[in-house]
UniProtKB/TrEMBL annotation:
Species: Cellulomonas shaoxiangyii
UniProt region (Disordered), positions on chain: 127-147
PROSITE patterns hit by this protein: RHODANESE_3
All residue ranges annotated as the Rhodanese domain in the record: 26-146
InterPro entries: Rhodanese-like_dom, Rhodanese-like_dom_sf, STR4-like
Gene3D superfamilies named among the record's database cross-references: Rhodanese-like domain
CDD domains: RHOD_1
UniProt name for this protein: Rhodanese-like domain-containing protein
Superkingdom of the source species: Bacteria
SUPFAM superfamilies listed in its UniProt record: Rhodanese/Cell cycle control phosphatase
A Pfam family this chain is assigned to: Rhodanese
Length: 147
């Protein structure tokens, strides 16, 4: 991997959206796991990895609308085909890069990874205008689709 993740506590590190795309493009074993909610996937969009021959795995970290942690997160992560100890890079993405930290930490503790967090997430933090979308995966011009 030519990208150098930023150091992090409890997981392999943080990547910018562009670095995450570079890793996913270069390493056919790397997996992108979008940990946002079903509502976010449906109404905001999802990363489109078809040009690198795969698709993002969709596994909620918290459930909508309750906001409660998904008790089946690790089981659902395993159902994506990633297994603990297999050494496959797992890149976690959420809306702004916060929930995905918890997912990366939990995956690392369970033996998955190296696990990475995508800084800024899919649409970034709220900007000065009160809206998201000024940073993150979409703002970086990376491929995405509206399901």
């Amino acid at each position: 991997m030519t990208v150098q993740p930023r150091p992090a506590d409890g997981y392999a590190g943080d990547l910018t959206p562009t670095e995450a795309w570079e890793l996913l493009s270069q390493d056919p074993d790397a997996v992108l796991v979008d940990v946002r909610t079903d509502a976010e996937w449906r109404y905001v969009g999802v990363p489109d990895l078809r040009t690198v021959g795969r698709q993002a795995a969709l596994v909620e970290w918290v459930s909508y609308p309750s906001g409660r942690p998904n008790p089946r997160f690790l089981d659902q992560l395993a159902a994506t085909g990633v297994t603990p100890g297999d050494g496959r890079p797992v890149v976690f993405l959420c809306r702004s890069g916060q929930r995905s930290i918890g997912a990366a930490q939990a995956a690392t503790a369970a033996g998955y990874g190296p696990a990475y967090n995508v800084l800024e997430g899919f649409e970034g933090a709220t900007g000065p205008d009160g809206h998201r979308g000024h940073e993150g995966w979409r703002a970086a011009g990376l491929p995405w689709v509206q399901p």
